[in-house]
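Task: sequence in, structure out. Protein: Serine/threonine protein kinase, putative.
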Amino acid sequence: MMMMPNEYVFFFLFFSFLILGIEESHSTCTQRFFFTYTHRSKYLIYCINTRKYLFRNIHTYLFVFHWGRGSGKKSKKKKKKKMFLKLFKRDKKEKDEERSGEKASEKKVGNNNHMDKKAPPQEKVTKDDFESLDVLGKGSFAYVVLVRRIGTNEYYAMKVVNKQGLLDHNRYRDVFVERNVLSRTNHPYLLKLYWTFQSEHKLFFVMEYMPGGDLDKYMNNLPSKQVDLFTAKLYAAEILLALLFLHEHSVIYRDLKPENILLTGDGHCVLADFGLSKDFYNPKEGGDASTKDMRANSFVGSPFYVAPDVLKQNEYTNAVDFWSFGILLYRMLCGRTPFNGKSMREVFDNILYSDLRFPSSVQLPSEAKDLISRLLIKDANRRIKGPEIKAHLFWTGINFDEVMERKVKPPKWVPIPSPEQVMAERAKAEGASTSAKNPGQLVNTPAQSSQLNSRQQQLFTGFSCTADNHLNKN
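Result:
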């Protein structure tokens, strides 16, 4: 076999990395290129042609380094080639699982029983089927609008996401995670999703409207910034049931905080915003994963609620949700979070190394202190888990079966008026601001961004769906 001159090998490898590094910066591709060129061999040319799956983790780096040196013996080369093929298949499988949401076909997605044997036809909708009424909230590249379906008296919250913003922040996978989790689950304390669809520049989630706002704003409007003991028990019980349901259905939530807990018109909690969740559900491997197989290592979460397991950047389990649950319970009862600081570095150091203390100004029952203390154990293996949490004495006076059926009412909640009354009050309070008067302008105006090319648009293929939550709507 005629070998290529070193100059040709150099340029071939360099441009292969730049062309194939679709999802990575050119600097990253260049770094990987120099590693490969240093340890090149005739086998590595084959590795480049099979794309970059080989270079995804440190174990593969070591393998390439060892293999590139070669041994000169046929039997060993066969063995190493077999090892390479095994690694390639494994990494390709991981990549395919990552993109399962992106490549999903536009079919109806199942409820908590996942896919029905015979799915009813999907009901397709577009933004033209809805009338925009009011802006409920805005984020960095998304906003939520109160809408009414034209020709009906049905009100929804429509979340509108800018595609370019997702691509700029490498967050386009998040919308598929959120869609997949919400569309296949059905629980009284999880936000209901009805439809998803897209336009050239935007993605749309049509979800259940929560007139009570979020728990963070509700608590901040209270004089003491905290709720009474019974309300804290009730809200904590509702969120705990939602978390346990997610864990049973192969999801680690990973972003529990008051801002992500919405309130219904009659004052119950609903968990929302699943973009940072880790979904282990895989229909090709029997659906739900066992708890022991649910392990992640991404650095995600909110600063004051993130678990030490995540900060250590090691592999972690759904125990991170129980830590955040402990912080949430502390926040509801004490009016603040336990681990604070003047900077994020100080906050993280306190989470990792500081002891838990309760404010002397708040009188808490011993059962509440005990549960919070056991939830905020820094060693995840010793931290209290789901069944133990439900069996704790803190829940005296709370019947989880009744909570599941929403039979227990928040004692101090004032019912929220109808959407029409809410809109009128907001328009009056805001002085008929532009955003309140013209919410449809946000929905219908094209995003201020560069044109997305066909390859970028392909990343959002299969986003549209009709969830069983809509088909089962009362």
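The chain has three domains: 6-98, 127-210+437-471, 215-404.
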